[in-house]
């Protein structure tokens, strides 16, 4: 028996090492870390770069953003990816994926975050193998013709054609934005307010084509094709049709990464449904996970990928266990309980990831999911019908009005739920270690529920103990923080004096900017700030620890008061004689924040260099952080 156990352990270890080897090899082989031969620099003669558009990113108010593959730089063949940004003027660029463009501009490195705990867009792009960016004005390129067929181009053209057809119908801007997101995977037409409402209501997943949408379509098509089971090979014919229809929808949705992943996952599920076994479905999910990670291991770090698989695994594994808690006899109650348990299982499975990335918990998620998800299948089905008819200009007015009313009603429900501020818990600190330990707690709990055993109970209690210990350790570490921060903010000055979990904020932001400031919110979450006092003026002198901060603004008026070796902060481009100031107080450091002109900063930096005095520029170096315990 001991020999058999030893062989089993050895087999498990070797299997694990084998998959680790596959992962390492796949990363090495697939990850396109191709170095660009050289960077183009600003000069009188810019080097032409040939690029191919491969992915459309979210459009901002200033630019349309794409991921592009570099094919050629000048006369040299090149490989790599870049962030291609087109400045938006009065007209948005009409570019199609797989377009080849000759562009003239500077290849620049993507800048990292300039403030503590700010979203790291550079790291996000690096996971897409993107290390440089290029910004051009709208129309400042030469299109290179290509006769080669591209399924990506065809999918993008089809989606644009559908969008054009839908815009001709009498939908409001919010209704069109929802239809565009639900059926075409594009959230560019959604207002910020509507997106925020869906987030607060715990229903933002509805607006991103994912496993939920593909899964609902699979159930709809599966029900539609049930009569095929009466034929001898009906099960196989049905499966083939299901997979084809799912991929047809993926084409309409533009073949984005999230859509491809979800469709691949449910294609495996459709095949597993032939065997009518929960175990087969679970194995199919694991198989699809393996195939997708083999194709691109970096999917593992994609938030959408993590949320999608966590939710589906939660529904497949956790939902049956939760459903057993209560078995209502009335059909209506049974169906309502089934839907509730699906929502609870999915939310439990994604909760740690949601807290880690988004730091908020919508307590009314069950209400929004109970009211919206049951209708989502009907909304998707009617939406596909509207799309099909719109391509032939044959959508009846009553159908447009009815569908618009359904979408407007859904938006109204979401807006009402989102308005219940007391039920939206925001700014929840949640670190990566807490994420891992919380999943250990969750998995241990459901393993114990499935088959209660003493060893499983011990594992669960240990996981909970680890979670509590880690939580209190992080809380204690935050309470020990003592620091002063000069943030980087264009045209503004923002300072924070932090003592433990309390902070004093000095700023010149308007009330709206202060309320919606993402970098300040990220800082509060990351540092576990529980109490913040905001002062909407910048004093000329601030004391912290054993240091003095002399602040010189645009008036250029300051009082020395016997100061020695202070830190000097220059803001709003003051017209001062910096040399005289340096000789007067002998500062230990000069800081220039984002409220200054670039020309002024460059002049000050030269003066400090002549005096061999440290100079700190937040525009290039990011926020200045002074730790009081050092």
TrEMBL record:
Family matches, as InterPro entries? ComEC_N, Competence_DNA_uptake, DUF4131
Q: Give the UniProt keywords, A-Z.
A: Cell membrane, Membrane, Transmembrane, Transmembrane helix
Q: How does it sit in the membrane?
A: Multi-pass membrane protein
Q: Which cellular compartments is it found in?
A: Cell membrane
- Kindly list the residue ranges recorded as spanning the membrane: 202-223, 235-253, 282-301, 338-358, 364-391, 398-418, 430-449, 454-473
Protein's UniProt keywords contain Membrane: yes
Q: Is the keyword Isomerase assigned to this protein?
A: no
Q: Please provide, in alphabetical order, the Gene Ontology terms of the cellular component aspect for this entry.
A: plasma membrane
| DUF4131 domain location | 4-140
- UniProt domain ComEC/Rec2-related protein: residue ranges: 182-451
PANTHER family with a match to the protein in the record: DNA INTERNALIZATION/COMPETENCE PROTEIN COMEC/REC2, RECOMBINATION PROTEIN 2
Please identify the protein, giving its name as recorded: Competence protein ComEC
What does UniProt list as this organism's lineage?
Answer: Bacteria, Pseudomonadati, Bacteroidota, Flavobacteriia, Flavobacteriales
């Amino acid at each position: 028996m001991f020999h058999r156990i030893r062989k089993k352990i050895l087999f498990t270890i070797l299997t694990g090492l084998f998959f680790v080897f596959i992962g390492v090899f796949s990363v090495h082989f697939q990850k396109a870390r191709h170095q660009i031969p050289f960077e183009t620099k600003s000069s009188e003669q810019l080097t032409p770069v040939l690029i191919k558009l491969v992915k459309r990113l979210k459009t901002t108010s200033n630019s349309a953003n794409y991921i592009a593959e570099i094919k050629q730089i000048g006369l040299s063949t090149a490989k790599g990816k870049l962030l291609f940004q087109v400045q938006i003027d009065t007209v948005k660029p009409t570019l199609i994926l797989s377009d080849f463009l000759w562009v003239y501009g500077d290849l620049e490195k993507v800048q990292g975050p300039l403030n503590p705990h700010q979203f790291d867009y550079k790291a996000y792009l690096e996971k897409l193998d993107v290390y440089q960016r290029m910004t051009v004005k709208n129309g400042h390129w030469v299109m290179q013709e290509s006769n080669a067929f591209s399924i990506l181009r065809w999918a993008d053209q089809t989606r644009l054609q559908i969008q054009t057809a839908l815009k001709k119908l009498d939908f409001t801007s919010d209704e069109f934005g929802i239809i565009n997101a639900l059926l075409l995977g594009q959230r560019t037409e959604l207002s910020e307010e509507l997106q925020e409402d869906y987030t607060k209501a715990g229903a933002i997943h509805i607006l991103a084509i994912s496993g939920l949408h593909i899964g609902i379509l699979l159930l709809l098509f599966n029900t539609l094709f049930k009569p095929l089971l009466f034929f001898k090979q009906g099960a196989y014919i049905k499966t083939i049709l299901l997979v084809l229809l799912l991929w047809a929808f993926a084409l309409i949705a533009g073949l984005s990464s999230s859509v491809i992943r979800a469709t691949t996952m449910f294609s495996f599920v459709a095949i597993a449904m032939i065997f009518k076994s929960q175990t087969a479905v679970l194995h199919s999910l694991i198989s699809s996970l393996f195939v997708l990670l083999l194709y691109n291991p970096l999917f593992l770090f994609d938030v959408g990928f993590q949320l999608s698989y966590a939710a589906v695994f939660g529904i497949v594994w956790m939902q049956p266990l939760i459903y057993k808690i209560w078995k209502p006899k009335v059909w209506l109650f049974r169906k309502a309980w089934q839907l509730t348990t699906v929502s609870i299982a999915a939310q439990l499975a994604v909760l740690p990831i949601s807290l880690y990335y988004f730091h908020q918990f919508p307590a009314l998620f069950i209400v929004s999911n109970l009211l919206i998800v049951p209708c989502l299948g009907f909304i998707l089905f009617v939406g596909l019908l509207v799309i099909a008819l719109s391509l032939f200009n044959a959508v009846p007015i009553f159908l447009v009005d009815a569908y618009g009313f359904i979408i407007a009603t859904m938006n109204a429900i979401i807006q009402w739920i989102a308005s219940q501020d007391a039920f939206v818990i925001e700014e929840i600190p949640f670190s990566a270690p807490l994420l891992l330990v919380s999943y250990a707690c969750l998995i241990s709990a459901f393993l114990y529920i499935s088959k209660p055993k003493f060893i499983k109970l011990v594992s669960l209690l240990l996981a909970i103990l680890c979670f509590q210990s880690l939580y209190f350790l992080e809380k204690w570490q935050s309470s020990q923080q003592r620091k002063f921060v000069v943030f980087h903010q264009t045209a503004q000055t923002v300072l924070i004096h932090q003592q433990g979990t309390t902070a004093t904020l000095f700023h010149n932001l308007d009330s709206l900017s202060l309320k919606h400031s993402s970098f300040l919110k990220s800082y509060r979450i990351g540092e576990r700030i529980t109490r913040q006092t905001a002062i909407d003026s910048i004093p000329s002198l601030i004391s912290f620890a054993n240091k003095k901060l002399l602040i010189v603004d645009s008036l250029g008026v300051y009082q020395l008061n016997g100061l020695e070796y202070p830190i000097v902060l220059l803001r709003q481009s003051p017209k001062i004689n910096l040399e005289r100031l340096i000789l007067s107080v002998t500062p230990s450091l000069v800081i220039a924040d984002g409220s200054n002109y670039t020309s002024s900063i460059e002049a000050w930096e030269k003066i400090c260099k002549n005096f061999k005095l440290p100079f700190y520029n937040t525009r290039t170096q990011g926020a200045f952080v002074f730790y009081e315990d050092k």
